[in-house]
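ok so for the tutorial part 2 we go from a plain amino acid sequence to predicted structure tokens. step 1 is just haveing the sequence, like this:
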Amino acid sequence: MGCTAAATTNGEVRRISTWTVRSSRDGGGGGDGRRQHMTPWDLTMLTFGYIQKGLLFASPPQQQQQKQQLVSGLRSSLSRALDHYPPLAGRLSTAKHDDGSVSISIHCNGQGAELTHSAAHGVSVSDIHSPLYVPDIIRSFFPLTGAINHDGHSAPLLAVQVTELSDGIFIGCAMNHSLCDGTSFWHFLNAWSKISASAAATTHSEPVLDRWFPESIDPRIRLHFTDSNRFITAPPLQETTLHFSRESIAKLKTTANQEMRTTTTNAISSFQAVLAHLWRAVTRARRLSPDGLGRAAWLLNRAVASTTDAAVREWLESWVGDPVFISGGTFGACDLVIGGSPRFDMYENDFGWGRPVALRSGASNKGDGCVSVYEGGVEGSMDLEISLLHETMSALMDDMEFLEAISY
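step 2 — the prediction. this is what the tokens look like for a chain of 408 residues:
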């Protein structure tokens, strides 16, 4: 493991040390050398930002020597976790073709992940967890802010920042979104936390590393690509995390299904009902004309139902013929962009000092109308992290019909 130390500060956050962390099975570097072709789903994300999600803990040890041991333990367990996830210790690689096109793959070359130890002196768990609006300092708790996935040719595909608070700790992770989706991200966090808590060398379930391609698509997809398509700077945003209880979600679901007179074969889900409730409220806050709850939820329901095997295969084949790349923060004035899932196992990430008390995300890919969905801290509940323009957020938080479904 390599290490650099510095006394630099980023706002109120001081960076203490940074290490390159390699698989414990790859002491000399080089990895296993395998290359993995990238699917259209992977490639369309090349101009998107890294996934940035983090966990807030309130109960780690407070003595300085114990804190140093904690960070050392996280480095060791991260190294053992990478034994099971060799692509995360690799880099992206580009092969050039005679016609000027390129093919991009994942090279498991063992260059390693990155772990940074930082400190935010004078900042408490309550400062992060309690305010209605997410404090700006959260953005300093994550590495690789501003990086796009194409940068993974030289930047690590996984970077972690462990930030000491006055009475807790925050673990912020950045993972290349062309390599991993949300399911993969939380699968890795679940595995790392279990390895850390148990000092074991194995994970709860081995990841599936192979990628699937239809027979009609050559895995060596050729692109005419430039990485000049970077983030569009979003206007100043306000962020909040709102909690929906199990009982509130059940009420919204019942109302939506009654309005649309659905049956058991096409019933509106809890997730669809909650998002419809938010969609209507944000539409009102933007001074647009909202439909009823049932209709909004039904539109979401039908969109999900239309994502069939045939539709997915058709999209894959059409993308190869005419590649389109997604850029972070490029939302329309009427858009609401949803990421995450309440089904991801987030609160069971116990590294050895208890469950997290909250989840937060970084600045990557944020724009007006960006919503991250998390499981709630109580079974059956749900949290929504919402980013909106200040005036829209103010109108949303004055909307009593919307707030009736929120728990504090």
